[in-house]
Amino acid sequence: MTVRRTEAKRNTYRGKSGFAGSSARRALLTLRATVILSGGLVIGLATGILTYFAVHNVPDAVLAGIPACAAAIKFLDAVIAEGSS
User: Fold this and answer.
1) Domain limits at 48?
2) Residues near 58 by Cβ (< 8 Å), separated by ≥ 6?
3) Looking at the domain assignment, is residue 71 inside a domain?
4) What's the pLDDT score for residue 81?
5) Is residue 26 a part of any domain in this protein?
6) Domain count, the chain
7) Which residues in 61-84 are b (16+ Cβ under 10 Å) and which e?
8) What is the pLDDT of residue 14?
9) pLDDT at position 82, please?
10) How many Cα atoms within 13 Å fall on the side-chain side of residue 57?
């Protein structure tokens, strides 16, 4: 039974961020997906707010904003090409 390691780890500086193993983690979303989703959410929110100002009814504003968000995400996905082909 070995209690100690035979070789001690050296404490070297490699751009430590304070989080263990943070350099090995990958991003949850790609930059492209983040831009598309953010744009869709902004467009859906703007549509909902403008609809609320027009009809003064929250359910109608929500029902206008959700499909606008989905359509904006689909549109931005088609417009922002994944790669040059």
Assistant:
1) 38-85
2) 52
3) yes
4) 80
5) no
6) 1
7) beebbeebbeebbeebbeeeeeee
8) 58
9) 74
10) 5
